[in-house]
Design brief:
28% of the residues lie in helices and 10% in strands. With 403 residues, it is α/β, with parallel strands linked by helices. Strand 2, helix 2 (35-44) and strand 3 form a beta-alpha-beta unit. The longest helix has 17 residues, at 373-389.
C-alpha cells in the first residue's frame, strides 16, 4: 500500500520533513525561499520536488514564478493530499527580539491557509512559537482559527508541545495547530485528539552529555568532514544519531543511505573560533553556569545569560537561529569551545547522515530555525493515526522502510 501523501510549506533545511518522512509519509512537494536552506534541503531530500521561491507564488496561477514551475507539481492536483504541514516564520511573535505586532511575517500563516484551501488535505499540522497564542491579547490566535474555519477546517485545536518529551535533548516549546477537513469525521475534538495521541508518543528526555559524549573534542578547521569517532563512549541515546547504530527511530541503513555517494565520515563538526578574551571567560564557567557566576573582573556585563555552558546531565536550553551571530550561550559542556554545527544538530535530533550545506554562518541559522525531527515524527504520528481512524491505512502504521 502506498504511503500517505504530504506537502511541506516553509520547509527550511528539512527538519519537519525528516520527522514526517520518518513517520511513514511521502513528501510530494516542498516550498522554501531561502537559497541557503534550499542547498541543505536538496542534499537530504533529492527525491522531493522543491519549489524554490516565495510561498505566495506556490499554486498561484497568476504568479509568473509559478507558471514557470507548475509543470513539476501537476501531480498535486491529480490526486488527493493527506497532510499539509509547516511552520510559518515566527520572528514577529518570538519573545526573542522586538515582538513587533505589525511585523509582515506575522501574517504568513495566511499563505499556509491559502494552500490548505487550494489542496484541501485531509489533515494539517502547523507549528509556531507559543507566544503567538497570546500576543495582541490572543487576537492572532482568534484570527488563525477563524481563517482555518473559513478554509474548511472547523475541527481544529492547538496545544503547546515540548520537544523534550519526544527524545529531543532540548527544552523547546512550540504551539502546534492540528485540524481535520470538514468532510471527515474524527469522532472527537481535534485538540483533544492531538494531546491524547502525543501522550502515547512520549519518550524519556536524553541529556546533553548522552547525546554528545562520543563526538571528538577536536573540530574540523577547514569545515570539511573528519574521521568518524569510535563507538567506545557511545550511550544508548547516541545510537539514535550514529551512522553505525540502529536507534529507536533512525535505522542504520537509512542514515547511511542519506549520505548518498558521500563516505561515512563525521560532517559539519566545526564551529566558530574562540578569541583569547572569550576563552578566558568560558574557562571560568562550570557545567550549567552562566555569566552571573563570573567574577566582576572577568565579566561586568549586565546580561547574565550572555555566557552559558551546557550542563551535561540536563537537556539543552533552546537552540536558536541567533547562534550564527553569537555562540556565547551555547558553550560545550566539557570543552572550552562553542558547540559545533553537528553537536547543535544532534541537540535538535538530526542524525549524523543529515548533511548541512552552505557556510557555517548559514548552517547554524538553519539548525536553529529547524523543527526537531523527532518532535516532528511524533506530530506526524498524530496525523497518521487520525487518517487511519477516519478510513485510511487500517493499522495506522507506516510502511516498512523509509526510502
Amino acid at each position: 500500500m502506498a504511503p500517505y501523501r504530504a506537502v511541506s510549506l516553509f520547509s527550511g533545511c528539512g527538519g519537519f520533513c525528516e520527522g514526517v518522512r520518518l513517520s511513514g509519509f511521502a513528501v510530494r512537494a516542498a516550498v522554501e525561499c531561502d537559497q541557503f536552506a534550499v542547498q541543505t534541503y536538496r542534499q537530504n531530500f533529492p527525491e522531493v520536488p522543491l519549489f524554490h521561491g516565495d510561498v505566495s507564488d506556490f499554486l498561484n496561477d497568476s504568479s509568473p514564478a509559478w507558471k514557470g514551475n507548475s509543470g513539476r507539481f501537476r501531480h498535486l492536483m491529480r490526486s488527493s493530499t493527506d497532510l499539509v504541514f509547516g511552520g510559518p516564520p515566527c520572528q514577529g511573535f518570538s519573545q526573542i527580539g522586538p515582538r513587533a505586532i505589525d511585523d509582515p511575517r506575522n501574517t504568513l500563516y495566511r499563505e499556509f491557509i491559502r494552500v490548505l484551501a487550494k489542496l484541501q488535505p485531509k489533515v494539517f499540522l502547523m507549528e509556531n512559537v507559543p507566544n503567538m497564542l497570546h500576543i495582541a491579547g490572543g487576537q492572532f490566535k482568534d484570527d488563525v482559527f477563524a481563517a482555518l474555519t473559513g478554509a474548511g477546517y472547523g475541527n481544529t485545536g492547538v496545544a503547546v508541545v515540548a520537544a523534550s518529551d519526544y527524545g529531543v535533548a532540548q527544552i523547546r516549546r512550540r504551539a502546534i495547530f492540528f485540524g481535520v477537513h470538514n468532510d471527515l469525521d474524527l469522532g472527537m475534538d481535534a485538540g483533544d485528539f492531538l494531546v491524547k495521541t502525543l501522550e502515547s508518543e512520549r519518550r524519556p528526555t536524553p541529556t546533553v552529555g548522552e547525546v554528545l559524549r562520543d563526538l571528538p573534542e577536536l573540530v574540523s578547521h577547514d569545515d570539511g568532514p573528519v574521521r568518524y569517532p569510535s563507538a567506545r563512549r557511545v550511550t544508548r541515546a547516541a545510537h539514535e544519531f550514529r551512522l553505525d547504530r540502529d536507534g529507536l527511530w533512525y535505522v542504520k541503513a537509512d542514515k547511511l543511505a542519506a549520505l548518498g555517494s558521500s563516505p561515512a565520515l563525521l560532517y559539519n563538526h566545526h564551529t566558530k573560533d574562540v578569541r583569547e578574551r572569550r576563552l578566558r571567560i568560558i574557562e571560568q564557567l562550570g557545567p550549567g553556569s552562566n555569566g552571573r557566576s563570573l567574577k566582576p573582573e572577568v565579566w561586568t556585563g549586565t546580561r547574565g545569560e550572555k555566557w552559558r555552558r551546557l550542563h551535561p546531565e540536563k537537556p539543552s536550553h533552546t537552540i536558536l537561529a541567533q547562534m550564527h551571530r553569537d555562540m556565547s550561550e551555547w558553550i560545550h559542556p566539557w570543552h572550552n569551545r562553542w558547540i559545533t554545527v553537528r553537536e547543535a544538530a544532534r541537540l535538535q535530533s538530526f542524525h549524523d547522515g543529515f548533511i548541512f550545506k552552505s557556510s557555517e554562518w548559514q548552517m547554524l541559522k538553519q539548525v536553529g530555525n529547524a523543527v526537531p525531527p523527532l518532535m516532528a515524527r511524533a506530530l506526524a504520528v498524530v496525523a497518521r493515526t487520525a487518517l487511519a481512524r477516519m478510513g485510511g491505512r487500517p493499522d495506522g502504521r507506516p510502511p516498512a522502510g523509509r526510502r
